[in-house]
Design brief:
Elements: E1 26-28, E2 38-40, H1 50-66, H2 71-90, H3 106-119, H4 125-142, H5 150-153, H6 162-165, H7 174-193, H8 200-215, H9 219-223, E3 230-232, E4 239-249, E5 260-270, H10 271-288, E6 301-303, E7 313-315, H11 318-331, H12 346-360, H13 365-372, H14 376-382, H15 388-393, H16 403-406, E8 412-414, E9 417-419, E10 448-449, H17 454-473, H18 480-500, H19 503-515, H20 519-532
Antiparallel strand pairs: 1-2, 3-4, 4-5, 6-7, 8-9, 9-10
Length: about 525
Protein backbone atom coordinates (compact mmCIF):
# COMPACT_ATOMS: atom_id res chain seq x y z
CA UNK A 1 0.00 0.00 0.00
CA UNK A 2 1.40 3.41 -0.95
CA UNK A 3 2.47 5.58 1.96
CA UNK A 4 0.15 8.55 2.40
CA UNK A 5 1.65 11.99 2.44
CA UNK A 6 1.51 13.86 5.75
CA UNK A 7 0.42 17.42 5.15
CA UNK A 8 1.23 18.27 8.76
CA UNK A 9 4.92 18.02 7.86
CA UNK A 10 4.50 20.53 5.05
CA UNK A 11 2.55 23.25 6.80
CA UNK A 12 3.74 25.24 9.78
CA UNK A 13 2.41 23.94 13.07
CA UNK A 14 0.10 26.31 14.87
CA UNK A 15 0.54 24.61 18.21
CA UNK A 16 3.81 26.52 18.80
CA UNK A 17 2.17 29.91 18.96
CA UNK A 18 1.26 32.57 16.47
CA UNK A 19 4.39 34.66 16.28
CA UNK A 20 5.01 36.64 13.10
CA UNK A 21 1.80 35.57 11.41
CA UNK A 22 0.62 39.00 10.30
CA UNK A 23 2.52 38.86 7.00
CA UNK A 24 1.18 35.40 6.19
CA UNK A 25 -2.46 35.96 7.08
CA UNK A 26 -3.31 37.64 3.78
CA UNK A 27 -3.35 36.29 0.21
CA UNK A 28 -3.14 38.52 -2.84
CA UNK A 29 -5.44 37.13 -5.51
CA UNK A 30 -5.18 37.00 -9.30
CA UNK A 31 -7.92 38.36 -11.51
CA UNK A 32 -11.25 36.71 -10.72
CA UNK A 33 -14.97 37.14 -11.58
CA UNK A 34 -15.82 38.11 -8.00
CA UNK A 35 -13.41 41.04 -8.28
CA UNK A 36 -11.76 40.31 -4.92
CA UNK A 37 -8.15 41.40 -4.72
CA UNK A 38 -7.24 39.79 -1.40
CA UNK A 39 -8.27 37.24 1.21
CA UNK A 40 -7.48 38.73 4.61
CA UNK A 41 -7.88 36.75 7.83
CA UNK A 42 -6.14 39.26 10.08
CA UNK A 43 -9.60 40.58 11.04
CA UNK A 44 -10.24 37.32 12.92
CA UNK A 45 -7.10 37.45 15.08
CA UNK A 46 -7.32 38.27 18.77
CA UNK A 47 -10.87 37.05 19.29
CA UNK A 48 -9.91 33.62 20.62
CA UNK A 49 -10.09 31.78 17.31
CA UNK A 50 -6.68 32.51 15.82
CA UNK A 51 -6.12 28.86 14.86
CA UNK A 52 -9.18 28.99 12.59
CA UNK A 53 -7.86 32.10 10.83
CA UNK A 54 -4.28 30.84 10.44
CA UNK A 55 -4.92 27.24 9.49
CA UNK A 56 -7.65 28.25 7.03
CA UNK A 57 -5.40 30.76 5.29
CA UNK A 58 -2.68 28.11 5.01
CA UNK A 59 -4.90 25.57 3.27
CA UNK A 60 -6.52 28.18 1.03
CA UNK A 61 -3.06 29.36 -0.03
CA UNK A 62 -1.99 25.78 -0.71
CA UNK A 63 -5.06 25.15 -2.87
CA UNK A 64 -4.54 28.41 -4.76
CA UNK A 65 -0.93 27.48 -5.52
CA UNK A 66 -2.04 24.02 -6.61
CA UNK A 67 -4.12 25.56 -9.39
CA UNK A 68 -6.94 23.01 -9.37
CA UNK A 69 -9.46 25.26 -7.64
CA UNK A 70 -11.03 28.37 -9.07
CA UNK A 71 -10.24 31.60 -7.27
CA UNK A 72 -13.97 32.21 -6.80
CA UNK A 73 -14.35 28.88 -4.99
CA UNK A 74 -11.51 29.68 -2.58
CA UNK A 75 -12.92 33.15 -1.95
CA UNK A 76 -16.18 31.41 -1.03
CA UNK A 77 -14.37 29.24 1.55
CA UNK A 78 -13.34 32.42 3.35
CA UNK A 79 -16.07 34.98 2.61
CA UNK A 80 -19.09 32.67 2.63
CA UNK A 81 -17.72 29.94 4.89
CA UNK A 82 -15.27 30.99 7.60
CA UNK A 83 -16.64 34.52 8.00
CA UNK A 84 -20.09 33.33 9.02
CA UNK A 85 -18.76 30.53 11.20
CA UNK A 86 -16.58 33.02 13.12
CA UNK A 87 -19.63 35.28 13.51
CA UNK A 88 -21.52 32.28 14.88
CA UNK A 89 -18.73 31.53 17.38
CA UNK A 90 -18.58 35.15 18.51
CA UNK A 91 -22.36 35.28 18.97
CA UNK A 92 -22.28 33.24 22.16
CA UNK A 93 -24.52 30.43 20.93
CA UNK A 94 -22.07 27.85 22.29
CA UNK A 95 -20.97 27.53 25.90
CA UNK A 96 -17.63 25.99 24.83
CA UNK A 97 -16.94 27.03 21.24
CA UNK A 98 -14.17 25.16 19.37
CA UNK A 99 -11.04 27.29 19.62
CA UNK A 100 -9.31 25.27 16.89
CA UNK A 101 -10.49 23.21 13.94
CA UNK A 102 -9.34 20.09 15.78
CA UNK A 103 -11.89 20.81 18.54
CA UNK A 104 -14.80 20.84 16.07
CA UNK A 105 -17.46 18.18 16.48
CA UNK A 106 -20.87 17.36 15.00
CA UNK A 107 -22.76 19.17 17.78
CA UNK A 108 -21.03 22.45 16.86
CA UNK A 109 -22.00 22.11 13.21
CA UNK A 110 -25.59 21.19 14.05
CA UNK A 111 -25.89 24.37 16.13
CA UNK A 112 -24.26 26.34 13.29
CA UNK A 113 -26.85 25.00 10.84
CA UNK A 114 -29.67 26.01 13.19
CA UNK A 115 -28.14 29.47 13.56
CA UNK A 116 -27.94 29.90 9.78
CA UNK A 117 -31.54 28.74 9.28
CA UNK A 118 -32.79 31.28 11.82
CA UNK A 119 -30.70 34.06 10.30
CA UNK A 120 -31.57 33.21 6.67
CA UNK A 121 -34.96 31.46 6.70
CA UNK A 122 -35.82 31.90 3.03
CA UNK A 123 -34.20 30.52 -0.11
CA UNK A 124 -30.85 28.79 -0.30
CA UNK A 125 -28.62 31.37 1.45
CA UNK A 126 -28.15 29.33 4.63
CA UNK A 127 -27.33 26.18 2.68
CA UNK A 128 -24.82 28.01 0.47
CA UNK A 129 -22.95 29.44 3.47
CA UNK A 130 -22.90 26.06 5.20
CA UNK A 131 -21.70 24.32 2.02
CA UNK A 132 -18.77 26.73 1.70
CA UNK A 133 -17.79 26.16 5.31
CA UNK A 134 -18.24 22.39 5.00
CA UNK A 135 -15.84 22.36 2.03
CA UNK A 136 -13.31 24.29 4.11
CA UNK A 137 -13.70 21.80 6.98
CA UNK A 138 -13.06 18.89 4.61
CA UNK A 139 -9.87 20.51 3.31
CA UNK A 140 -8.71 21.25 6.87
CA UNK A 141 -9.23 17.60 7.68
CA UNK A 142 -7.33 16.42 4.62
CA UNK A 143 -4.41 18.67 5.51
CA UNK A 144 -4.24 17.19 9.01
CA UNK A 145 -5.74 20.03 11.05
CA UNK A 146 -8.76 17.96 12.06
CA UNK A 147 -7.78 14.55 13.40
CA UNK A 148 -11.27 13.07 13.81
CA UNK A 149 -12.95 11.09 11.06
CA UNK A 150 -14.96 13.65 9.10
CA UNK A 151 -17.84 11.20 8.83
CA UNK A 152 -18.26 11.64 12.59
CA UNK A 153 -17.99 15.44 12.37
CA UNK A 154 -20.25 16.41 9.46
CA UNK A 155 -24.02 16.18 10.06
CA UNK A 156 -25.81 14.02 7.46
CA UNK A 157 -28.08 16.03 5.14
CA UNK A 158 -28.60 19.15 7.31
CA UNK A 159 -30.76 20.81 4.64
CA UNK A 160 -33.33 18.22 3.52
CA UNK A 161 -35.77 19.24 0.77
CA UNK A 162 -33.86 22.46 0.24
CA UNK A 163 -34.79 22.54 -3.45
CA UNK A 164 -38.46 22.96 -2.52
CA UNK A 165 -37.63 26.08 -0.52
CA UNK A 166 -35.38 27.63 -3.13
CA UNK A 167 -36.89 30.37 -5.23
CA UNK A 168 -34.78 30.11 -8.37
CA UNK A 169 -35.50 32.49 -11.20
CA UNK A 170 -37.76 31.03 -13.85
CA UNK A 171 -36.80 30.96 -17.53
CA UNK A 172 -38.26 33.71 -19.64
CA UNK A 173 -41.59 33.04 -21.28
CA UNK A 174 -41.62 33.19 -25.07
CA UNK A 175 -43.25 36.61 -24.90
CA UNK A 176 -40.63 37.93 -22.49
CA UNK A 177 -37.85 36.47 -24.60
CA UNK A 178 -39.21 38.04 -27.77
CA UNK A 179 -39.42 41.47 -26.14
CA UNK A 180 -35.91 41.13 -24.72
CA UNK A 181 -34.32 39.99 -27.98
CA UNK A 182 -36.12 42.75 -29.88
CA UNK A 183 -34.61 45.31 -27.50
CA UNK A 184 -31.14 43.76 -27.73
CA UNK A 185 -31.42 43.68 -31.51
CA UNK A 186 -32.20 47.41 -31.65
CA UNK A 187 -29.18 48.09 -29.44
CA UNK A 188 -27.03 45.87 -31.67
CA UNK A 189 -28.06 47.89 -34.73
CA UNK A 190 -27.23 51.12 -32.88
CA UNK A 191 -23.82 49.74 -31.88
CA UNK A 192 -23.15 48.73 -35.47
CA UNK A 193 -24.13 52.20 -36.76
CA UNK A 194 -22.13 53.97 -34.05
CA UNK A 195 -25.07 55.78 -32.44
CA UNK A 196 -25.58 53.62 -29.33
CA UNK A 197 -26.65 55.82 -26.41
CA UNK A 198 -25.23 53.66 -23.59
CA UNK A 199 -21.70 53.57 -22.22
CA UNK A 200 -18.95 51.08 -23.04
CA UNK A 201 -20.00 48.66 -20.35
CA UNK A 202 -23.59 48.61 -21.64
CA UNK A 203 -22.46 48.09 -25.23
CA UNK A 204 -20.36 45.10 -24.23
CA UNK A 205 -23.18 43.79 -22.05
CA UNK A 206 -25.58 43.87 -25.00
CA UNK A 207 -23.15 41.80 -27.06
CA UNK A 208 -22.54 39.42 -24.17
CA UNK A 209 -26.26 38.87 -23.50
CA UNK A 210 -26.87 38.07 -27.17
CA UNK A 211 -23.93 35.65 -27.15
CA UNK A 212 -25.32 34.03 -24.01
CA UNK A 213 -28.77 33.69 -25.58
CA UNK A 214 -27.26 31.98 -28.63
CA UNK A 215 -24.81 29.68 -26.81
CA UNK A 216 -26.09 28.99 -23.28
CA UNK A 217 -22.62 29.31 -21.74
CA UNK A 218 -22.38 29.66 -17.95
CA UNK A 219 -21.62 33.04 -16.40
CA UNK A 220 -17.99 32.62 -15.33
CA UNK A 221 -16.74 30.87 -18.49
CA UNK A 222 -18.52 33.52 -20.55
CA UNK A 223 -16.97 36.43 -18.63
CA UNK A 224 -13.54 34.77 -18.82
CA UNK A 225 -13.81 33.91 -22.51
CA UNK A 226 -10.48 34.33 -24.29
CA UNK A 227 -10.06 36.23 -27.53
CA UNK A 228 -9.08 33.07 -29.40
CA UNK A 229 -12.04 31.05 -28.09
CA UNK A 230 -13.91 30.94 -31.40
CA UNK A 231 -12.89 28.04 -33.65
CA UNK A 232 -14.41 26.43 -36.79
CA UNK A 233 -16.82 23.54 -36.33
CA UNK A 234 -15.06 20.38 -37.58
CA UNK A 235 -17.90 19.43 -39.90
CA UNK A 236 -20.93 21.73 -39.90
CA UNK A 237 -20.11 24.90 -41.89
CA UNK A 238 -22.96 26.97 -40.41
CA UNK A 239 -21.77 26.53 -36.84
CA UNK A 240 -18.73 27.59 -34.85
CA UNK A 241 -17.40 26.27 -31.55
CA UNK A 242 -16.63 28.41 -28.53
CA UNK A 243 -13.88 26.97 -26.36
CA UNK A 244 -14.33 28.00 -22.72
CA UNK A 245 -12.91 26.86 -19.40
CA UNK A 246 -15.29 25.50 -16.78
CA UNK A 247 -14.21 24.26 -13.37
CA UNK A 248 -16.08 21.30 -12.00
CA UNK A 249 -15.83 19.84 -8.51
CA UNK A 250 -16.01 16.11 -8.08
CA UNK A 251 -17.86 16.52 -4.83
CA UNK A 252 -16.52 16.59 -1.30
CA UNK A 253 -15.43 13.25 0.13
CA UNK A 254 -14.20 12.63 3.62
CA UNK A 255 -11.06 10.70 2.67
CA UNK A 256 -9.79 12.55 -0.38
CA UNK A 257 -9.01 16.19 -1.00
CA UNK A 258 -11.82 17.73 -2.97
CA UNK A 259 -10.54 18.41 -6.46
CA UNK A 260 -11.88 20.82 -9.01
CA UNK A 261 -10.77 19.94 -12.50
CA UNK A 262 -10.49 22.30 -15.41
CA UNK A 263 -12.38 21.32 -18.55
CA UNK A 264 -12.20 22.75 -22.03
CA UNK A 265 -15.85 22.97 -23.04
CA UNK A 266 -17.09 23.44 -26.56
CA UNK A 267 -20.37 25.24 -27.09
CA UNK A 268 -21.81 25.49 -30.58
CA UNK A 269 -22.97 28.87 -31.75
CA UNK A 270 -24.70 29.69 -35.08
CA UNK A 271 -23.28 32.22 -37.48
CA UNK A 272 -25.52 35.08 -36.32
CA UNK A 273 -24.10 34.61 -32.82
CA UNK A 274 -20.61 34.44 -34.30
CA UNK A 275 -21.15 37.84 -35.95
CA UNK A 276 -22.08 39.35 -32.57
CA UNK A 277 -19.03 37.84 -30.88
CA UNK A 278 -16.80 39.08 -33.70
CA UNK A 279 -18.27 42.56 -33.19
CA UNK A 280 -17.22 42.43 -29.53
CA UNK A 281 -13.73 41.39 -30.59
CA UNK A 282 -13.60 44.21 -33.14
CA UNK A 283 -14.68 46.87 -30.63
CA UNK A 284 -12.28 45.71 -27.94
CA UNK A 285 -9.27 45.06 -30.21
CA UNK A 286 -7.80 48.61 -29.88
CA UNK A 287 -8.00 48.26 -26.09
CA UNK A 288 -5.93 45.08 -25.82
CA UNK A 289 -2.57 46.88 -25.90
CA UNK A 290 -3.80 49.34 -23.25
CA UNK A 291 -5.18 46.70 -20.88
CA UNK A 292 -3.28 45.12 -18.01
CA UNK A 293 -1.67 41.75 -18.66
CA UNK A 294 -4.19 39.89 -16.50
CA UNK A 295 -7.20 40.97 -18.62
CA UNK A 296 -5.65 41.63 -22.06
CA UNK A 297 -6.67 38.18 -23.30
CA UNK A 298 -10.36 38.72 -22.44
CA UNK A 299 -13.11 39.56 -24.94
CA UNK A 300 -15.31 42.00 -23.00
CA UNK A 301 -12.94 44.98 -22.62
CA UNK A 302 -14.11 48.61 -22.38
CA UNK A 303 -13.02 52.00 -21.02
CA UNK A 304 -14.01 52.42 -17.40
CA UNK A 305 -15.75 55.78 -17.71
CA UNK A 306 -15.53 56.34 -13.96
CA UNK A 307 -14.41 59.76 -12.79
CA UNK A 308 -10.65 59.92 -12.59
CA UNK A 309 -10.19 56.68 -14.50
CA UNK A 310 -11.91 57.36 -17.81
CA UNK A 311 -9.08 55.83 -19.81
CA UNK A 312 -8.61 52.77 -17.61
CA UNK A 313 -9.33 49.54 -19.47
CA UNK A 314 -11.50 47.09 -17.56
CA UNK A 315 -13.49 43.97 -18.40
CA UNK A 316 -17.06 43.00 -17.59
CA UNK A 317 -17.66 41.48 -14.17
CA UNK A 318 -20.76 40.01 -12.59
CA UNK A 319 -21.39 43.29 -10.75
CA UNK A 320 -21.05 45.42 -13.87
CA UNK A 321 -23.30 43.04 -15.78
CA UNK A 322 -25.99 43.35 -13.09
CA UNK A 323 -25.95 47.16 -13.33
CA UNK A 324 -25.99 47.12 -17.13
CA UNK A 325 -28.82 44.58 -17.28
CA UNK A 326 -30.94 46.83 -15.08
CA UNK A 327 -30.09 49.85 -17.24
CA UNK A 328 -30.95 48.01 -20.48
CA UNK A 329 -34.34 46.92 -19.13
CA UNK A 330 -35.14 50.42 -17.87
CA UNK A 331 -34.05 52.11 -21.11
CA UNK A 332 -36.32 49.87 -23.17
CA UNK A 333 -39.05 49.77 -20.48
CA UNK A 334 -38.95 45.97 -20.67
CA UNK A 335 -41.62 44.29 -18.57
CA UNK A 336 -42.34 40.71 -17.61
CA UNK A 337 -45.71 39.07 -18.21
CA UNK A 338 -46.99 40.47 -14.90
CA UNK A 339 -46.20 44.05 -15.86
CA UNK A 340 -43.16 44.37 -13.58
CA UNK A 341 -39.69 45.43 -14.73
CA UNK A 342 -38.00 42.51 -16.45
CA UNK A 343 -35.25 40.83 -14.42
CA UNK A 344 -32.47 40.03 -16.88
CA UNK A 345 -29.78 37.58 -15.75
CA UNK A 346 -27.49 35.13 -17.50
CA UNK A 347 -28.92 32.25 -15.48
CA UNK A 348 -32.42 33.03 -16.77
CA UNK A 349 -31.13 33.13 -20.34
CA UNK A 350 -29.46 29.76 -19.84
CA UNK A 351 -32.58 28.25 -18.31
CA UNK A 352 -34.65 29.64 -21.18
CA UNK A 353 -32.34 28.06 -23.72
CA UNK A 354 -32.49 24.79 -21.83
CA UNK A 355 -36.28 24.87 -21.78
CA UNK A 356 -36.25 25.45 -25.53
CA UNK A 357 -33.92 22.48 -25.96
CA UNK A 358 -36.29 20.43 -23.82
CA UNK A 359 -39.00 21.23 -26.34
CA UNK A 360 -36.89 20.39 -29.35
CA UNK A 361 -35.78 17.09 -27.85
CA UNK A 362 -39.35 15.97 -27.20
CA UNK A 363 -38.77 16.09 -23.44
CA UNK A 364 -35.76 13.75 -23.47
CA UNK A 365 -33.90 14.91 -20.37
CA UNK A 366 -30.75 13.00 -21.28
CA UNK A 367 -30.60 14.74 -24.63
CA UNK A 368 -30.90 18.15 -23.01
CA UNK A 369 -28.25 17.48 -20.38
CA UNK A 370 -25.76 16.26 -22.99
CA UNK A 371 -26.21 19.42 -25.06
CA UNK A 372 -25.93 21.76 -22.09
CA UNK A 373 -22.96 19.95 -20.56
CA UNK A 374 -24.11 18.84 -17.14
CA UNK A 375 -25.63 15.80 -15.50
CA UNK A 376 -29.32 14.91 -15.99
CA UNK A 377 -30.04 15.45 -12.30
CA UNK A 378 -28.62 18.99 -12.44
CA UNK A 379 -30.73 19.80 -15.48
CA UNK A 380 -33.86 18.35 -13.89
CA UNK A 381 -33.37 20.13 -10.55
CA UNK A 382 -32.11 23.53 -11.61
CA UNK A 383 -33.02 24.35 -15.19
CA UNK A 384 -36.11 22.63 -16.54
CA UNK A 385 -39.12 24.27 -15.01
CA UNK A 386 -42.36 22.67 -16.20
CA UNK A 387 -44.16 25.95 -16.64
CA UNK A 388 -47.56 26.15 -18.29
CA UNK A 389 -46.06 27.29 -21.55
CA UNK A 390 -43.94 24.16 -21.91
CA UNK A 391 -46.81 21.91 -20.91
CA UNK A 392 -49.12 23.55 -23.44
CA UNK A 393 -46.56 23.69 -26.22
CA UNK A 394 -45.78 19.99 -26.02
CA UNK A 395 -42.74 20.14 -28.31
CA UNK A 396 -43.17 17.59 -31.04
CA UNK A 397 -40.48 16.29 -33.27
CA UNK A 398 -41.76 17.98 -36.43
CA UNK A 399 -42.60 21.36 -34.91
CA UNK A 400 -45.77 23.02 -36.20
CA UNK A 401 -46.13 20.88 -39.31
CA UNK A 402 -47.92 17.61 -38.52
CA UNK A 403 -48.25 15.01 -41.28
CA UNK A 404 -52.05 14.87 -41.15
CA UNK A 405 -52.24 18.64 -41.59
CA UNK A 406 -49.92 18.62 -44.56
CA UNK A 407 -51.54 16.02 -46.81
CA UNK A 408 -52.46 17.76 -50.03
CA UNK A 409 -50.51 20.89 -49.07
CA UNK A 410 -47.60 21.91 -51.26
CA UNK A 411 -44.38 21.29 -49.30
CA UNK A 412 -40.95 22.13 -50.72
CA UNK A 413 -38.64 19.09 -50.70
CA UNK A 414 -35.42 19.44 -48.68
CA UNK A 415 -32.62 16.93 -47.98
CA UNK A 416 -34.08 15.78 -44.60
CA UNK A 417 -37.75 15.83 -45.75
CA UNK A 418 -39.64 18.99 -46.57
CA UNK A 419 -40.24 22.60 -45.56
CA UNK A 420 -43.45 24.59 -45.55
CA UNK A 421 -41.58 27.79 -46.51
CA UNK A 422 -37.91 27.70 -47.54
CA UNK A 423 -37.83 31.47 -48.15
CA UNK A 424 -39.54 32.75 -45.02
CA UNK A 425 -39.49 29.75 -42.67
CA UNK A 426 -38.21 29.82 -39.12
CA UNK A 427 -34.51 29.53 -40.00
CA UNK A 428 -34.64 30.98 -43.53
CA UNK A 429 -32.78 34.21 -44.45
CA UNK A 430 -36.21 35.84 -45.07
CA UNK A 431 -34.80 38.08 -47.80
CA UNK A 432 -37.11 36.74 -50.51
CA UNK A 433 -34.15 35.54 -52.58
CA UNK A 434 -32.10 32.97 -50.72
CA UNK A 435 -33.63 29.69 -49.64
CA UNK A 436 -32.91 28.18 -46.23
CA UNK A 437 -29.84 25.91 -46.15
CA UNK A 438 -29.85 25.05 -42.44
CA UNK A 439 -30.50 21.38 -43.15
CA UNK A 440 -28.60 20.17 -40.09
CA UNK A 441 -31.20 21.93 -37.91
CA UNK A 442 -34.36 20.91 -39.80
CA UNK A 443 -35.50 18.39 -37.20
CA UNK A 444 -35.73 21.05 -34.54
CA UNK A 445 -37.30 23.69 -36.77
CA UNK A 446 -41.05 24.47 -36.57
CA UNK A 447 -41.12 24.92 -40.36
CA UNK A 448 -40.00 21.33 -40.95
CA UNK A 449 -42.64 19.24 -42.71
CA UNK A 450 -42.99 15.66 -43.89
CA UNK A 451 -46.07 14.35 -45.69
CA UNK A 452 -45.35 10.65 -45.55
CA UNK A 453 -44.48 9.86 -49.16
CA UNK A 454 -41.77 7.39 -50.04
CA UNK A 455 -39.60 10.26 -51.31
CA UNK A 456 -39.99 12.26 -48.09
CA UNK A 457 -39.20 9.30 -45.86
CA UNK A 458 -36.26 8.34 -48.07
CA UNK A 459 -34.76 11.79 -47.48
CA UNK A 460 -35.36 11.52 -43.72
CA UNK A 461 -33.75 8.07 -43.43
CA UNK A 462 -30.88 9.25 -45.64
CA UNK A 463 -30.25 11.93 -43.06
CA UNK A 464 -30.31 9.20 -40.41
CA UNK A 465 -27.61 7.31 -42.37
CA UNK A 466 -25.58 10.51 -42.32
CA UNK A 467 -25.93 10.67 -38.53
CA UNK A 468 -24.62 7.10 -38.23
CA UNK A 469 -21.66 8.00 -40.47
CA UNK A 470 -20.91 11.10 -38.36
CA UNK A 471 -20.84 9.01 -35.18
CA UNK A 472 -18.33 6.61 -36.72
CA UNK A 473 -16.22 9.53 -37.92
CA UNK A 474 -15.95 11.24 -34.53
CA UNK A 475 -15.01 8.37 -32.20
CA UNK A 476 -12.60 10.13 -29.82
CA UNK A 477 -13.53 10.61 -26.15
CA UNK A 478 -14.12 14.36 -26.36
CA UNK A 479 -17.08 13.74 -28.70
CA UNK A 480 -18.87 11.33 -26.34
CA UNK A 481 -21.62 13.76 -25.30
CA UNK A 482 -22.09 14.86 -28.90
CA UNK A 483 -22.43 11.22 -30.02
CA UNK A 484 -25.15 10.70 -27.41
CA UNK A 485 -27.05 13.61 -28.92
CA UNK A 486 -26.73 12.13 -32.42
CA UNK A 487 -28.02 8.76 -31.17
CA UNK A 488 -30.99 10.51 -29.62
CA UNK A 489 -31.86 12.05 -33.00
CA UNK A 490 -31.58 8.61 -34.59
CA UNK A 491 -34.00 7.23 -31.99
CA UNK A 492 -36.35 10.16 -32.51
CA UNK A 493 -36.51 9.46 -36.25
CA UNK A 494 -37.29 5.77 -35.62
CA UNK A 495 -39.90 6.55 -32.99
CA UNK A 496 -41.59 9.28 -35.00
CA UNK A 497 -41.84 7.37 -38.26
CA UNK A 498 -43.07 4.18 -36.57
CA UNK A 499 -45.89 6.12 -34.90
CA UNK A 500 -46.93 8.33 -37.82
CA UNK A 501 -46.61 6.26 -40.98
CA UNK A 502 -47.45 2.88 -42.47
CA UNK A 503 -44.97 0.22 -41.41
CA UNK A 504 -44.41 -1.21 -44.91
CA UNK A 505 -43.79 2.27 -46.30
CA UNK A 506 -41.30 3.00 -43.51
CA UNK A 507 -39.44 -0.27 -44.11
CA UNK A 508 -39.28 0.41 -47.84
CA UNK A 509 -37.94 3.94 -47.33
CA UNK A 510 -35.40 2.78 -44.74
CA UNK A 511 -34.08 0.04 -47.05
CA UNK A 512 -33.83 2.47 -49.96
CA UNK A 513 -31.86 4.95 -47.82
CA UNK A 514 -29.39 2.27 -46.73
CA UNK A 515 -28.90 1.08 -50.30
CA UNK A 516 -28.79 4.49 -52.00
CA UNK A 517 -28.97 7.55 -49.70
CA UNK A 518 -30.24 10.84 -51.09
CA UNK A 519 -27.44 12.41 -53.14
CA UNK A 520 -27.01 15.35 -50.73
CA UNK A 521 -26.26 13.05 -47.79
CA UNK A 522 -24.50 10.40 -49.89
CA UNK A 523 -21.80 12.89 -50.88
CA UNK A 524 -21.19 13.85 -47.25
CA UNK A 525 -21.09 10.20 -46.15
CA UNK A 526 -18.66 9.38 -48.97
CA UNK A 527 -16.41 12.28 -47.98
CA UNK A 528 -16.25 11.16 -44.34
CA UNK A 529 -15.49 7.56 -45.28
CA UNK A 530 -12.69 8.63 -47.62
CA UNK A 531 -11.19 10.91 -45.01
CA UNK A 532 -11.47 8.23 -42.34
CA UNK A 533 -9.76 5.72 -44.63
CA UNK A 534 -6.93 8.10 -45.45
CA UNK A 535 -7.91 8.46 -49.12
CA UNK A 536 -8.09 12.24 -48.79
Amino acid sequence: MARQKSYKAVLHSVTKGFEAVEDNIRIDLPRNPRNHRQIDHSQYLGAGFDAWAIQSIYVIRALLQGGNFSVSTLIGYSVNGLRFFIAFLLGGALDSPPATPNNLDKRHLERFVSWLKLKYPNGSTAKNYYTSFKSLVIVLGEYGFIEADLKDVLPPNPFPNNAKNTNDADPFSMGEMQRLLSALKSDLIAIHKGNFVGNGAEAMSVLLFITAARSGINTTPLLEMARDALVPHPFVPNLRLINTIKRRGKGAQSKTIRQTNLFDEYNTIPLDGVAVLNKALEISKPLVALASEEISSYVWLYRSGQQGGENKIVTLTGGALYVCAKSICERHTLQDDQGERLNLTLSRLRKTMESRLWKLSGGDILEVSSVMGHSPSVADNHYLRMNDEIKADGATFVGEAFPDKLRGIDVTPTPPGGCKDTLYGNKAPKDGVNHCAEFIHCLGCPSYAIVGTLEDLHRLFSYQQFLYAEIEYFLTDEWESWRKRQYSYIRLIDDFTSRKFNGDLVSQARAKAKMAPHLFWAKKIEFMKKKLGGVI
